[in-house]
Amino acid sequence: MGPLQDIRVLDMSRLLPGPFCTRLFADMGADVIKIEEPVKGDYSRNFVPRRGDFACWFMEVNRNKKSVALDLKNEEERRLFLELAKTAQVVVESYRPGVMKKLGVDFETVKQVNPKIVYCSITGYGKQGPLVKQADHDIGYQSLAGLISLSGEKDGKPSIPGVLAADMQASAMAGMSILAALHHAERTGEGQEISLSLFDTCLALVPGVSATYFGNGFVNMRGNNWLSGANPNYNVYRTKDGRYMSVGCLEEKFWKNLCGVLERPDLIPVIQDETKYPWLKDELTAIIATKTMEEWVELAKGSDSCFAPVLNYDEALATGQAIADEMVLDVEDQELGNYKTMGFVTKFSATPCQLYRRAPRLGEHTEEILSEIAEPEQKHQQ
User: Fold this and answer.
1) Pairwise CA distance, residues 291 & 309, whole Å
2) Radius of gyration of the chain (CA)
């Protein structure tokens, strides 16, 4: 079993940030129970494409979990949730501020039945300030936090990032914070509430940007700094066949190696003169356009030049590195047939992550889990 096999998590979140966080816990062996609204459940259950009667998105984000359907607006089912909370170490929720209190399952209420509970609330804009009630998605949080302005061509339209950075980084931040709070609870017997917003996560996601702004007032934007296209040695260039190669030679030794691959040793000293950067960009553009992406990949092999192909996702999964790291799992399922799912990023030497079970159907484990909390009550009454 995984390193978190003695941890029970009640997952009241939906869609991506909370569910991905709790999936990481489940992959590490935690007993994650997804508390879902009857009939509808997690909205992502309705996404396409589908695998049988399962949404592939839902399966990817909610594997290794169990599902209990409870209507928390119902007094008896709310009581059952609080009984279940007595058996858990962690609660994760992603509703707007005030919703959990209205339902009677907020931190203060749960703490009364379980003083050691770690209660993590993932919100869009936190629990104070003018935007706390505002609805949004990843693109909105990134826009307001200044991240969208960093992507795209200089003087051009900002680009929508291909990664849901707010959602995914908030998932990781929540997981780390929960583990820290669990450590505190184990030492002191005191649980606590964790409040984490996607907006705040975005603000803190670019320490280089904040460091320069706090240091000298410089505002990083697309194309005006060394990490967003201003420099020729950290950029993306089109190849002969319409594909792209990335150059990431921030250190002098890697730049020298790249110039060797390009057979242009005369360019080595030019990188020291920023006034020649526009010319140097034009030179790299012209040189890299003379060969196909595959040809450059072959020439760059073993060169240690930070010169990489810009692959599509299917190509990335097929690389020898992804295969060696077992980042694609082949699953055999008697009911759904064989399918693939993402592997485990973290490699534990003693307690490896595992695929214990497919994602649950809505309420699949309701009877099983609720019978656990009913048995102690019956014994107490006897």
Assistant:
1) 12
2) 25
